Amino acid sequence: MDILVALGASIDISRSELKINGNVIPFGTDIPTQIIQEFSTAIDNIQTQIDQQPDPNTHSIEEVELIERIKNEFHDLEYDSNKKLTFTLEIKHTLKLKTGEPIYQRNYRLPFHIKDFIKKQIKEDLASSPYNSLVLVVPKKGDTYRLVIDF
Asked: What is the pLDDT of residues 44-102, one digit of tens each?
């Protein structure tokens, strides 16, 4: 159907008509040779137009030079899939809130035996902070738990 739209053509089976560029060509059970030739020519023209469109993956000489210049300028920032990703302690991030006061939410009531697990997890995984979000403890298979923070 897309080819018919591209050709400006339509087929009306109930009327046994073929319309190409406003020309109505009636047909019976046999499709005339003229119709086949017109379709073939139109399809060839469309294929030629498609072939002449620029490849979106190719770049002009100016674009290639710009890309190379940027790659050379920032060569130390390129990603190497063979290297392990690391972290840095050079930058410290702070959250600036509207009020300037830390957000502190009181925790849910939890069984006493789970409180030891929470303290241990926070000490191992999280830094000390004046902020506090609600935590949940979800049982995993076996006798282990998972700490979930509810923001």
From this structure: 777 777 666 666 677 778 888 888 888 888 877 767 778 777 777 888 887 777 777 77
Determine which helix (DSSP H) or strand (DSSP E) holds 23, and give its type and residue range: strand 23-26
d(C-alpha 146, C-alpha 135), whole Å:
10
DSSP, collapsed to helix, strand or coil, labels residue 72 as helix
Which amino acid, one-letter code, is at 144? Answer: T
Determine whether 138 is exposed, middle or buried from the number of CB atoms within 10 Å of its CB (0-12, 13-18, 19+): exposed
Please name the residue that has the structure tokens 């086949």: 36
User: Is there a contact between 105 and 134 (Cβ–Cβ < 8 Å)?
Assistant: yes
